[in-house]
């Protein structure tokens, strides 16, 4: 791997970003947040984007947290700026119009777990370790962990994790709903290939609308959210994708999206 802090590759419109600081277990420092923001500029401007996968370089860590050596000397005001930067970057990742998947290939701690939580779902290798150990450093999660973790796994389990700082393995992460699937590390690449092909085979606007309905709907009351779904469902019938998708079914052929 080169010296780029974020490596980028692509298959079938799925962009794979690899956080590349393996000597520091891919810990997120300011330079890395800048590199991620630059990648987001490109992803947000890419109309052909079908999905994003984010992972860590090496076979030991996804991301072992925000960079402790950089945070060590921060004043309270600087810490607020650092947190705001991390939060804004992760919000942009979360708001990408396509599915964003964390491919957790090892330690996924602190800011790393927060990065995974900003993704639409996570898939983990069986050696992955998760946790929000910030309290052991005398701080709390600063990139959204106290808010996205309870929304993902429920408040009681989130409180357990953020107040004890205990680490959990991939199987426990699966059981509590922090990850969707667990597999041997060697199978992660095949997972990405499968995901890329699945997304490439679906109506691109339909995939974007499905994500929008879930995300925007969760921020509304149920009746408003159901009305939003009805609007997006109707909108699908105003475009070409619905004619191609349903036409292909009736003609017994593969749709060409
Ligand atoms: N920040 C900076 N450097 C880190 C790091 C981090 N979060 N995590 C690991 N590293 C560095 C280590 O300092 C070490 O560097 P050197 O070789 O230069 O000494 C290198 O990565 C390898 O790490 P270890 O030697 O510690 O590896 P290990 O296998 O013995 O332990 C580990 C692995 C359990 C993940 C351990 O590195 C660890 O506990 N890391 C810190 C995890 C953590 O507390 N994360 C939360 C950070 S706070 C945060 O993220 C705040 C927020 O919400 C924004």
UniProtKB/TrEMBL annotation:
UniProt-listed GO biological process terms: fatty acid beta-oxidation
Gene Ontology MF annotations: hydro-lyase activity
Tree of life domain: Bacteria
Assigned keywords, A-Z: Lyase
Presence of keyword Lyase: yes
Family annotation (Gene3D superfamilies): 2-enoyl-CoA Hydratase, Chain A, domain 1, Lyase 2-enoyl-coa Hydratase, Chain A, domain 2
Keyword Transcription set for record: no
CDD domains with a match to the protein in the record: crotonase-like
InterPro entries according to UniProt: ClpP/crotonase-like_dom_sf (IPR029045), Enoyl-CoA_hydra/iso (IPR001753), Enoyl-CoA_hydra_C (IPR014748)
Family according to the record: Belongs to the enoyl-CoA hydratase/isomerase family.
Entry protein name: Enoyl-CoA hydratase
């Amino acid at each position: 791997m080169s010296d780029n802090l974020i490596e980028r590759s692509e298959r079938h419109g799925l962009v794979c970003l690899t956080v590349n600081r393996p000597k520091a277990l891919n810990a997120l420092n300011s330079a890395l947040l800048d590199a991620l923001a630059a990648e987001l500029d490109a992803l947000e401007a890419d109309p052909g984007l079908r999905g994003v996968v984010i992972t860590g370089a090496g076979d030991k860590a996804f991301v072992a947290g925000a960079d402790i050596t950089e945070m060590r000397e921060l004043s309270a005001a600087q810490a607020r700026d650092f947190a705001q930067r991390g939060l804004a970057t992760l919000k942009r990742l979360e708001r990408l119009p396509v599915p964003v998947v964390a491919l957790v290939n090892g330690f996924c701690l602190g800011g790393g777990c927060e990065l995974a939580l900003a993704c639409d779902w996570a898939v983990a290798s069986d050696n992955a370790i998760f946790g929000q150990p910030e309290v052991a450093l005398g701080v709390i999660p600063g990139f959204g962990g106290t808010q996205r973790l309870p929304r993902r796994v429920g408040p009681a389990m989130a409180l357990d994790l953020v107040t004890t700082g205990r680490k959990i393995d991939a199987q426990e992460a699966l059981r509590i709903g922090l990850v969707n699937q667990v597999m041997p590390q060697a199978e992660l690449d095949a997972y990405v290939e499968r995901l890329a092909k699945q997304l490439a085979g679906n109506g691109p606007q339909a995939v974007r609308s499905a994500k929008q309905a879930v995300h925007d709907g969760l921020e509304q009351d149920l009746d408003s959210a159901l009305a939003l779904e009805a609007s997006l469902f109707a909108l699908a019938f105003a475009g070409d994708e619905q004619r191609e998708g349903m036409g292909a079914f009736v003609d017994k052929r593969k749709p060409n999206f």
